[in-house]
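Recap slide: L-threonine aldolase, sequence and predicted structure.
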Amino acid sequence: MSDERLRRLNAMRDCDRILSGVRPKTMRDRLADLEAGGDLDGWPDFYGDGPVEALEERVAGLLGTQAAVFFPTGTMAQQVALRYGADRTGIPAAALHPLGHQEVHERHAYAELTGLRGVRSTIERRNPTAAEIARLGEPVSTVVIELPMRDAGFVLPSWDELVAVAKASRAIGARVHFDGARIWESTPHLGRSLHEVTALADSVYVSFYKSLDGISGAVLAGTADLGDYARAWRHRYGGTIFQQWPAVLIALAGLDRELPRLPRYVRHARTIAEALSLLPGAKVYPQPPHTHQFRLWLPFPASALGAAVLAMAERDGVWFAGGWQDADVPGYAVTEVTIAGHALEWTADDVAEAGARLLAEL
């Protein structure tokens, strides 16, 4: 870990107030989370039984699927989902968005390790529409929908759009796979329960560390046939690990603690986003946010914003938002804002005051 990153983590951990993100946890903090996830006097898992099976059953119940299979990483789970579609349909191609996780963050594992070919579903900064799927022009085994699409700004379709694209995918003979790493917080915008949302898909991947405060791990959920297939390929990919109980217990704790809070985070994100949009030169997208995460642009260099945030945190004990990057918009930098935990304590006036303080620092 770099000295600069360590400095940011220490500063954020010591802040009394945090607007974006959650307070970083040490390894000792994580040990305390284990207690909340299950009986530490019980037996650990052995190659996927015990606590792993308990988590799988819990997630299958939450999603309303026949099966759920735990994977150490989402990258592995998504490869298996696309491989399954290709094997079952005989079509070695999948419809993917160029901003989707498989293309941007997984180093094209579906192509490099599985030999599949990606077909671009759309070039718009959103998920594909039913019309775009209908005119793909070539057969695909799976259509991937990312809920929400993180690299487009955490954007979601409407419920009617999602229903239509699922129908259009099946009309061309394709399966529907939801890249649902953050599907947990998508239900308020869609206006439907998790059961109703996942019922539109043939397979769903969910993550435990992106919104539920886990340390690692994912689940691939779907039919019983998919579950059998996923367990076989999980083993072949090296994902059937001897023991994974720390990640599993902390995931269970996250389901208990964070999942019920997500609707509140989503609602409060709208208040915070509106207040941030009133800062001089600020731009917020989407407005209002679709989930509890959104993007914020300010008219300063990323390096200057990062330094100002850190200085304000170390001096005043207030963390504004980190992770600034220079944007495509000339003269602006952008960051991802996550409303969770301590951010619920912030009012619009608090945001205005902290924003003014940050701008004065700049």
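The CA atoms of residues 165 and 203 lie 15 Å apart.
The chain has two domains: 3-24+260-361, 45-242.
(End of recap.)
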